[in-house]
Amino acid sequence: MAKALISIDYTYDFVADDGKLTAGKPAQAISERIAQMTQAAYDKGDYIFFAIDGHDEGDVFHPETKLFPPHNIKGTSGRDLYGPLADFYQEHKTNQNVFWLDKRHYSAFSGTDLDIRLRERGVNTLVLTGVLTDICVLHTAIDAYNLGYQIEVIESAVASLNQENHQFALNHLQNVLGATIIE
C-alpha cells in the first residue's frame, strides 16, 4: 500500500514573525526539516498533499471567528507556504503526486475530498507534518484514525504555539491514536 505525506498549514500566517496566528520560532525551527521530509517522500514516490487552511474575509459564521484573529484569508499572502516548502511546491505543483487541498476546518478531512483521493490511490499510511501539533495536526490525525489509516508523525517536522501543547499532542497521538512518532 502507498503512503501520503500531509503537510498541514505551513503558511506565512502560522509561521512568520508577523503572521496573523503565528507559532513563531518553534514553527520556524522546523522549516528545513519539513522541506527535507517532503522532498524525501516525493523522491520515494509518495503522494504529497498540502492541506491549507483557507478562510473568507469577514466570515462571521465560521466557528474559529470567536476563537482566533482572522488568518489564512483566501487571496492573501498569509496563505503562502513558508520557507523552502514554498520552493518545493512551486517546482512540483504540476506533478501528478502533488496536491493542494483547501481546508476550512482544523482537520484536513473535514469538508474535503482527501479521503476519496487517498483511497483512489491505495494509500493506507499518512505521514503528518506541519502546524499546529495540538490543533490541525491532531484533528487531522483523529479523523485519519477514525477512517482506519495508519498514522506517522515526524516529531521534528511539527510545531505548536508552546512546548506544553506540543508535547500533549504528541503523547495523545502516540498513546490514544496509536501513531508512530518518528524523529
Structure, explained:
- It is a single chain.
- By secondary structure, this protein is an alpha/beta fold.
- It has a single domain (2-182), classed as Isochorismatase-like (Rossmann fold, 3-Layer(aba) Sandwich).
- 36% of the residues lie in helices and 23% in strands.
- It has seven helices and six strands.
- The protein has a six-stranded parallel β-sheet with strand order 3-2-1-4-5-6, with helices on both faces.
- Helix 4 links the parallel strand 2 and strand 3 (98-103).
- It is globular and about 40 Å long.
Q: What is the CATH C level class, in words?
A: Alpha Beta
How would you classify the helix and strand content by structural class? alpha/beta
Radius of gyration: 15 Å
Task: Based on the coordinates given, report the CATH architecture.
Answer: 3-Layer(aba) Sandwich
Quickly list its features.
7 helices; 6-stranded parallel β-sheet; 36% helix; Rossmann fold; single chain; alpha/beta; 183 residues
What is shown here, in short?
This protein is an alpha/beta fold and about 180 residues long. It has helices at about 10-15, 25-30, 30-45, 85-90, 115-120, 135-145, 165-175; strands at about 1-10, 45-55, 100-105, 125-130, 150-160, 180. The model has no long low-confidence stretch (mean pLDDT about 95).
What's the structural blueprint in terms of helices and strands?
Layout: E1 2-8, H1 12-15, H2 25-28, H3 31-44, E2 47-53, H4 84-92, E3 98-103, H5 114-120, E4 123-131, H6 133-146, E5 150-159, H7 163-175, E6 180-182
Parallel strand pairs: 1-2, 1-4, 2-3, 4-5, 5-6
Helix pairs in contact: 6-7
